[in-house]
Design brief:
Elements lengths: L4 E3 L1 H4 L6 E3 L8 E9 L2 E9 L2 E6 L4 E2 L4 E7 L5 E8 L2 E2 L6 E4 L2 E4 L8 E9 L4 E8 L1 E2 L18
Parallel strand pairs: 6-14
Antiparallel strand pairs: 1-2, 3-4, 5-7, 7-11, 8-9, 8-12, 10-11, 12-13
InterPro entries: Ig-like_dom, Ig-like_dom_sf, Ig-like_fold
Protein name: Lymphocyte activation gene 3 protein
GO molecular function, one term: MHC class II protein binding
Length: 157
Amino acid sequence: MRPRVSVQDSALLSGNFSLRIDPVRSEDAGLYEALVAYNTLIQSCQVELGVITVTLSPPSPVIENEPLLLSCNSSHQASLVEMCWFHNGHLVPTSRTFCSLHGALSILRPAMSDAGSWRCQLRYSDNEIISTTYHLQILGFDGPTNPVVYAAAGSAA
């Protein structure tokens, strides 16, 4: 996993044996164990790392008015009960524009207003709720809807 993993050497003396993974990948999910030996004492701890991912199809850049699919997946083992999508903090209802299909959100005609923060929230049969955020960027024009712009003579336009 090198060079994505690190241990804070300065924190070891105070008993902090944290492992930092940056960036986390889907294949990093699983059980991690730390063993610490000090004189004749051996301590161990186990931590399970779950990973949630959002993927974009087609990959970036997203072009305005071209359909896209945001997929959300997690390494959690329980049965998925519910999936919700939020755009800039607001729940996205299913409509003609936004269709939710098997863990994915389809945006049929993305507009510049669809850019921003998209959060996928998964709820499982064991009542575990997991979420992650994806920042969507869209290439297009964010100007007036009317292609005619009037400006006063002598002013800037």
